Task: structure prediction
Amino acid sequence: QKEVEQNSGPLSVPEGAIASLNCTYSDRGSQSFFWYRQYSGKSPELIMFIYSNGDKEDGRFTAQLNKASQYVSLLIRDSQPSDSATYLCAVNMNTGRRALTFGSGTRLQVQP
Amino acid sequence: GAGVSQSPSNKVTEKGKDVELRCDPISGHTALYWYRQSLGQGLEFLIYFQGNSAPDKSGLPSDRFSAERTGGSVSTLTIQRTQQEDSAVYLCASSAGTSSPLHFGNGTRLTVT
Result:
């Protein structure tokens, strides 16, 4: 089992729809969770971070964390073509390596 | 500077040569990370520095790879005797602490011919 798992996609949604991106992680003791967006040929940029169970909203983005299920998700409301990118989930594991562990990313395509 | 600065932005080298990649983190950030990203792949952890602690080198793929961080600031990643499989984008990131968000530089695209 990978430490951080994401569906590679592509996830295709129409403009204006809600895009739902999911991530599971293996270390039950993980404390910090991050979502990064990466456009093709560019570096990852931070979208959101979440530390506590529940929802955290920032504009059109909502991060959801369920530590019991070891599951974190990112919802993008009113998706725009400019949201088309790869979304990387990153987890700060409680054991082993102290650096962030990244999933392989989900490619999102928003169709105009 | 305002962000993480990496140099060079592109490097083409011949197989067998040594290369040095430089990273200047955000001022005040105590943690510095190196990751590698091959074309179409995810981020592969290489090495992590936190303050004065011993670095976490567990991600370095071979003994041809080494990194240092001088004065708690600038870091250099050195690849000796480069191989074609070393071709990738090398990303540096810094953060205010272990649990804080990472801020990435623009990366160095390394091509080994």
Remarks:
- Chain B has no helices and ten strands.
- The CA atoms of residues 38 and 88 of chain B lie 5 Å apart.
